[in-house]
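Q: Could you predict the 3D structure of TIGR02588 family protein?
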Amino acid sequence: MKREHGTGDMRAAKPKPQVPWLEWLAAGLGLIFALGLFGMIGWQAFNGATVPPAVTVEVEDIARIDGGYRVLFRARNGAGEAAAQVEIEGIVSGPEFKAETSRVVLDYIPGRSTRRGGLFFTRDPRSGALDVRATGFAEP
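A: Sure. Here are the predicted structure tokens for TIGR02588 family protein:
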């Protein structure tokens, strides 16, 4: 009697590997982060991230100090682009004295942010008209 042996492969069947739940979680979080990042970049591109700087200045406090007066201010860049070398000028003027000017340069104001600074005067800014404004900037 002759017996035929099968030529088929008799290896044991391996079970299909399961992907751990932690791997799925990490992939999902990465996808959410990537989509959020692309969404934020797209939103900035269409909503003024490339608008040139627009700096406004607001006086916060006036105080007497040794040798004169200090005027604290807040400079706000409401536009999307940053501004460098922002010059802030303050002028105190009155009917009975000559106008006094003080200037300061803020190094950098990022888009949609604020920076604080101060100006010094020898005359009391409350005794006359005080005008504080941004006079110029450079592109960073």
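Q: Anything worth pointing out?
A: The longest strand covers residues 97-109.
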